[in-house]
Amino acid sequence: MFGWPVGYDPPFMVRHFSGLVRPRDEIKLLAAAALQRMQDQYNAHVDFRTSEDPRVRDNAFIGVHLRVEKDATDYHYLSYEDQLAYLKRRLRGRNGNATHPPDMTLPDTEKSVLYVACGDTDSIARLAKDVAPITVVTKNDLLPEDTFAGASLRNMTWDQQALVDMLILEHSGYFIGVRESTFSWHLALQRAAAVNWVTGGYPGNCWLNSSDIDSANIRSGCKFMLQDNEEWRDDLSAVVSNGHQWGGPHMEISVWP
């Protein structure tokens, strides 16, 4: 699965290959319904960030892949506490302080909502308490069970519901995921591709250096921007780790955006 660095292929192919297989229309409609509900109920900006309009809007929503299900715990993925600590650090950084300017890559935390993709309801409730007063929402909140869309969502398998999360998170103003998850990597890299950063439009010092091949063909986050526990960080997304070596750098260079 991770045997071939996709950056070795032509940039156009890297940019568009994953689009050959897209979720079925029912899943797209549910994601669209959830985004519309978020826009109507919370005045959230839900449009894509693109190369034509790459800036983050103050009222865009923040997307989080909270990966704390049992298998993640069993395989020692990033703990809930570590994921929370990073998230809270970034949220505090948005406002800035006497020594650090505001982090303008994130939406305004006083105008934004936090959309969380997670398969563990107890952890979602815990997160909502830990980041209060910021509002936390999920697909189940946006698509209530007593609606047609909500009933359709709950009739889907776990993996199908995850695709609804993925399509919603593509629209987030800023996305935060975890290194051990291909779901998180796909979103971070796809969002970078959407503003042409994968296909050569990103500044040269945001690419891995290589002595034997063209470094512009190897994707990486902006290394000069990385803080503790970050594996990827650009103006649209961050992928976080805890120093555990499972997953390694091969996800970074071999997951299709």
From TrEMBL:
Keyword RNA-binding: no
Protein keywords: Carbohydrate metabolism, Fucose metabolism, Transferase
GO biological process, one term: fucose metabolic process
Any GO molecular function: transferase activity
Transmembrane segments: none
A family per Pfam: O-FucT
Keyword Magnesium included in the entry's annotation: no
Protein name per the record: Alternative oxidase
Organism: Colletotrichum graminicola (strain M1.001 / M2 / FGSC 10212)
